Amino acid sequence: MKNKRKICIMGMGYIGLPTAALLANRGYQVRGVDINQHAIDTINRGEIHIVEPELDTFVCSAVQSGSLVANIEPSEADIFMIAVPTPFHVDKINEITNSPIPNIDYVVDATKQIASYIKPGNLILLESTSPVGTTDMMASVLKKEGVDIDSIFIAHSPERVLPGHIMRELIENDRVVGGVNDESTKKAAEFYRTFVEGEVLETTAKTAEMAKLTENSFRDVNIAFANELSILCDDMDIDVRELISLANRHPRVDVLNPGCGVGGHCISVDPWFIVDSANGKAKMIEQARRTNDYKADWVVEKIKNEALIFEKDNGRKATIACMGLAFKPNIDDLRESPALYIAQELNKVLDIVAVEPNIQEHKKLKLVNLEDGVMSDICVYLVFHNEFINIDLKKWDLDFCGISEACL
What we know:
A hairpin with a 4-residue loop joins strand 5 (88-94) and strand 6 (99-102). This protein has two domains: 6-203, Rossmann fold; 214-406, Rossmann fold, CATH 3.40.50.720. By secondary structure, it is an alpha/beta fold. The protein has helices at 16-25, 37-44, 55-64, 105-115, 134-144, 166-172, 182-192, 205-236, 240-247, 270-277, 283-314, 338-347, 370-373, 403-406, and strands at residues 6-10, 29-33, 68-71, 79-82, 88-94, 99-102, 123-126, 153-156, 175-179, 200-204, 320-323, 352-355, 378-381, 398-399. The strands form three sheets. An eight-stranded mixed β-sheet has the order 3-2-1-4-7-8-9-10, with helices on both faces. Strands 12-11-13-14 form a four-stranded parallel β-sheet, covered by helices on one side.
């Protein structure tokens, strides 16, 4: 039996679409809204425009049952969810910290779009990762748009899922829910408990916002430690992965493995939200961000130096294959990817191709298949994709993701 409650979700991206498909399969009547007509048309055919395991099955089932419909425009609903991007301003900088400034224009626009459809008793949820105070800002925007905010419920519950496991983690992970007031918190928590099997933890809107930023900043700091170690060990001629394995034999030490930087829409972005609002006080968080960004530039220079040595020894320029472009293994997501950044920087000065098994094409880089890629003089392993396991590394190959250990 279908749930009579209607949900309108703003944003059909990596969070909005999986959430819409899951809720539609749980009996809710869901309207997914996006500005991308291609995405709308694809969803309404019961297909997906992003890569995520199991998502295609959920979307197909939801559309065929009539529980999920996508459209450019929102409509009246009992629950409105906002899951739109929160990027940086491209033309603004925080003058105190010389750091990026969060851009919440998409949240503001989505809030304004739903304003005329909101009725008393509606629940308004922000799922986009946002600077502290954004949920309260939404309430102010709605009030300016003529909505009686005392008659509705407004809350924030940040997504905390791992790409590649989204459909499972939407259900199993604990959720932090914080409203602009106690009534909003309770109403939002009540809704999430209808489909979340993990614990639903109640707090305030600002604390919920800060919780998500804290989670990703914690991870960023720990990754920065590993990445800095890898740079130091390179100078000292020490195998950093052997070092870490030895250090981790201590019962209270758990150092992560280094990579070529940090990417994705969360860890490489969210810490800057804290830095931007901290007036220069978030020193460790800021330094971790700069360390992880620097690691990608360091990798670029290492590859350039390898290419120069190859040319000197062989009397010709090397052909180079960048192995992996996604921001993490076994997905197609290129957002904020250090591997993509590295490949694009190298492409400005060297003869390179790229191997990325999870995408079909790229506007700026020449993609080749795995068989052709490994024939390059220098293979630069940037992402630990399954397809790269058990490939024999050649003399000139460089490993920045630990793939060589999997090949032993």
